[in-house]
Amino acid sequence: MAFDLSRKKILLAEDDGDDREFFIDFLGSRTDIELLPGVTSGVELLDYLHRITSPDELPDIVILDQNMPKLTGKETLTAIKATDWLAQIAVVIYSTYVGRELIDECLKLGAVSVKSKPVSKDGYNEMMNEILAACHRVSVS
After folding, report:
1. How much is the pTM?
2. How many distinct helices (H) and strands (E) make up the chain?
3. 84, pLDDT greater than 60
4. Which range among 18-22, 76-80, 85-89 has the greatest average pLDDT?
5. Highest-confidence range of 29-38, 69-78, 131-140, by mean pLDDT?
6. Cα distance between residue 70 and residue 120, in whole Å
């Protein structure tokens, strides 16, 4: 994946309405990202991605909640990385609880990073800065 410093298209997969609102409220005004329409499940995310007709329409980064109905974040990550034309998408797993086991499993499956859900605007901005930096490091390696 070629990762430059231009505005990044971010897609959030999150089933909790409050968390979606926090994410949009805290990051919607950032000029370095474009928030794509969010989805509420892994199934909905995969459907969304499979409807895309041009590589230019793909998100640069998917932020994927681990604890969702139907497909967990890890299961959805596995499906994304198993699809050749989607595998280039940088995927970040985030969850209320992030332990060593979850981090190791997700990184092994191809996640760029695993993050704890922030609780403040500063936390969301810090998380996004860390995500953008992690995606940049991966792309230049």
Report:
1. 0.87
2. 5, 5
3. yes
4. 76-80
5. 69-78
6. 28
Contact partners, residue 87, CB within 8 Å, separation at least 6:
80, 81, 110
Kindly state the tokens that stand for 16.
């909790």
Q: Are 26 and 125 in contact (CB under 8 A)?
A: yes
Q: Residue range 49-53: average pLDDT?
A: 93
- CA dist 26 and 92 (Å) reads 18
Helices (H), 28-120: 42-51, 73-81, 100-109
Closest by CA to 93, choosing from 7, 12, 19, 38, is 12
Q: Could you give all domains of the chain from N- to C-terminal order, each with its CATH number? A: 8-140 (3.40.50.2300)
Placement of tokens 């595998």 in the chain: 87
Between CA 38 and CA 3 the distance in angstroms is 22
